[in-house]
Amino acid sequence: MSSIKQVAGIVIGVVIGLVGGMLFKSSLPPEKDSAAEQLEIQRHELKSARNRLAVLEAERRRGDLASGQAARDIAADIRAGREVDLDDVFALTKPYLADISPLMERMRLKEEKRRSEEIAGEMARKYDLTKIQQARLEDWMAAESQVNAEKFRMVLEDEESDFEDFIRATEENAEFGDLDDFMESELSGEKLAEYKAERLVERSENVTSEANRKLHRLHEVVDLDVSQQDAAFLLFARGSGDYEEGMVVDGMQGTQGGLSVAQRNAEVMSLLRPEQQAQYQSYQAEQREEANRELQEVGLKLPADWDLFEDDLFD
């Protein structure tokens, strides 16, 4: 019979291995007091209730962790070829992940220090930052890194967190915050104007690329007509996190404000004819089935309430 540490090591390896291939895009919050916001609140409450039930079920199933029964149960399921739910795996491995989090934190800090030095060096070279400004930039990025680390730690300590929360925290842990606000507070005059102009071009290119990618995928699934393509492109552009009103995107100037992901999803779906909506919903179901099949190949399965398209229907 495998020891607790051996089985935990296997399960932790599975969890960490999956993290690299399963990422989520962060989304903007729904408009205040909108139907989308109310739906999001209800969804959150339902998820919390499900998570509380999952905790109770996991406790019932695991029994006494010190006895190793939970590890033996999962090991038996794996050996027998029975599917293992990712939330069950995460619930079991969470204490061990918390134990090794200091090691993960040291590795992350080393990598982010390298990245922050690269960014600070680039900003200093391009915009003539003084040594004091460069040091402030590095300090700011270090503070952002600590904020991300705290979010990650809270997920591991929260009894109700699930595998989806873990994935989201992992993605957030890999990103710095908004660099633009900091740089614009440090620069002035021509250098500030130069920075804003260059960032506007970069954001416009990002928006165009994102909108084209989403439009291409949607068009492949539902065969949009020309007017639908033009309208969907602009909606995808306005739904990008890099979009701002007045931005020139692919030769067209956006005259309307940005959209939250929930708003963008609703407006794009409203462009589709009923048969196209049915086609796309069928495509979503197929994507979930495909994800499940891939996990089943290694003896895992998605949690019952896992929503691959919770944030972005068109990603």
Automatic annotation (TrEMBL):
Residues 32-59 form a coiled coil. Keywords: Coiled coil, Membrane, Transmembrane, Transmembrane helix. This is Uncharacterized protein. It comes from the Bacteria. The chain crosses the membrane at residues 7-24.
